[in-house]
């Protein structure tokens, strides 16, 4: 399957919600090679579903592609679509991981959501699917445990 209407290379409006966001995928030029791709979203923002106040996180997404790669512009727009979306930290983190896994069918995917404190408690959320291929280097996600990030 080849994607025919990518957002890349054309003007794209910010999606109104994560559900309305279109994630694009492109063929992996090295489907026979295990390698790790990482996306870091250092300024992720969503809204508390109870108070409507903003929540902030650093998201780190690591995946070992199969046949598909996520197109980075569409991923950026998808991430920005959470800015007016009300959901708990756990829901945002896991929903992003599941949506990417469904789209890409990767060999392995993990997401770490490092959320800034609300009410004095930081909530870090981790989700993964698949098995990490043997002999593949999986670096630390590089986000320090909470000490006034």
UniProtKB/TrEMBL annotation:
Keywords: Cytoplasm, NADP, Oxidoreductase, Queuosine biosynthesis. Residues 1-10 have a biased composition (Polar residues). Pathway: tRNA modification; tRNA-queuosine biosynthesis. The active site is at 48 (thioimide intermediate), 55 (proton donor). Substrate binds at residues 70-72, 89-90. One of its GO terms (biological process) is tRNA queuosine(34) biosynthetic process. Catalyzes the NADPH-dependent reduction of 7-cyano-7-deazaguanine (preQ0) to 7-aminomethyl-7-deazaguanine (preQ1). It is an enzyme of class 1 (oxidoreductase). Belongs to the GTP cyclohydrolase I family. QueF type 1 subfamily. It catalyses: 7-aminomethyl-7-carbaguanine + 2 NADP(+) = 7-cyano-7-carbaguanine + 2 NADPH + 3 H(+). HAMAP family: QueF_type1. NCBIfam families: QueF-II. Its EC number is 1.7.1.13. The keyword Cytoplasm applies. The lineage of its organism: Bacteria, Pseudomonadati, Pseudomonadota, Alphaproteobacteria, Hyphomicrobiales. This is NADPH-dependent 7-cyano-7-deazaguanine reductase. It is found in: Cytoplasm. It comes from the Bacteria. Residues 1-27 are annotated as: Disordered.
